[in-house]
Structure formats: C-alpha cells, structure tokens
Amino acid sequence: MIFDNEPNNWKELQNFVGQMFNECGFDTEVSKVVDLVRGKKEIDVYTQDNSSEYKPIILVECKFWASPISQETIHSFRTVVADFGANLGFIVSKNGFQSGSYEAVKNTNIRLVSLKELEKEYYVKWKQNLTKQYMPYADKLFPYWDYLGKMPIDGGTIDFEKQQLVYSAYRPICSLSPSDQMLKGFTRNYPMTIPVINDELAQTGTIQIATDRQYFDFVEQNKEQALRHFKKLYRE
C-alpha cells in the first residue's frame, strides 16, 4: 500500500492522510478552518482534486480513538460536510465504528474507513501522480541507457560494464514509464536489490527496495544524482 508504517497518534494519522492526498496531486491543507452555517470549524484534512473535471472537495475527520466511533460523532460530521457543501467526507478510524454506523451513512456522501482502506481507495491515483511527477527525470536518463541512445560528445567509447552498473544503480528511475500511470498499472516484483555507487562510478554496496513507498523515496532521493552520474559516464 502507500505507507509502510502505522501512525502512533492522532497527529500522525492526520499527517499521513494529508500526505497521501498531497502525493495524489490534490490541493491539501491539514487543520484547515472553514466557514459553516453556524460558525467556523477546524477540519482535520481538507483536500480538493483540481485535476479532475468536477474538482470535488473532500473533508476528512481523523479519529485515533481506543474505542469504535459512535453514531453521534458520525451524525455531527455529516452536518459539517452538508453545511460546507463538500462532495465527499471520510471518517478515518483507528478502531472501527459502533454497531449501526454503516447504516447511518447509507445513501449519504460519508465514508467510514480505516487508514488502510483509505490507502487502497487512492492507491492508483497516488501511484499515477508520483509517476507523472518523476517521469521527466526518467526521460532525461533514457538516452544514456537506450541501445539506440546518445554517444559520448568526445566521440570515444563507453565501458559497457560500467554503463550497466550505473543503469542498475538507478533502475528504479530508468524503469518509470507510462504503464505506471495506467488504471491497473505495472506491478513490480519486490524485493529489488540495487547496487550503490560512488562518484567514481564504483560499487560500494547494495540496498534493497521492498515496497512502493521505498521505491518512490529512492527516486526522490536519487533523481539528481542519477543524471549527474550518467553525465560523468558519458564525459559531459
């Protein structure tokens, strides 16, 4: 799924939800104060998908309670969502919901979920947006490893084994493609072992990528270094 760890408190739960929607490409604010019919109300997570045709507004209430969420809490949040005119509302609970809660939101725009259920709901959107964000970096690397790609500007040759090592070290970036943005997307096999190289383009060890979160974290942390190392290999 999207996160490798579980939140330890309410604030972390709120931040996890905010981070997820932000990484989906939504305009997101955590702890946003909004105007309602009867005054102001602080919303745990306010988010809007401005990339879609209808630009839906979503309000999220995060509950890191030791007990299931009561129907009274759900009815209160329904009023907030209705008064604000949001398109959708989520209550994210650590420990579920009391009996009758799901019946209380039947035929409404309120969804009752755990964090993992919310992650599953937005996983494809999350992966599509991160791929879109990092594709420009993958495109810059493509000519360096494609067999019909560029040649060194000095007209010399490239050490094939060294090229393969650099490619392997940055394979998570090089392998990003439009297929990652398809509805079902391309599924990678984990764990993935990646060589670590230094500025001399020599291997110094390995790292293992075991989840999508680790995969995209690797891309973020290495996107600039990858291009720098390929340029060095090609003597640019």
Automatic annotation (TrEMBL):
Protein name per the record: Restriction endonuclease type IV Mrr domain-containing protein
Molecular function terms from GO: DNA binding; endonuclease activity
Superkingdom of source: Bacteria
Coiled coil: none
Classification via SUPFAM superfamilies: Restriction endonuclease-like
Alphabetical list of Pfam families matching this protein: Mrr_cat (PF04471)
One BP term from GO: DNA restriction-modification system
InterPro entries: Restrct_endonuc-II-like, Restrct_endonuc_IV_Mrr, tRNA_endonuc-like_dom_sf
Residue ranges occupied by any Restriction endonuclease type IV Mrr domain in the UniProt entry: 9-119
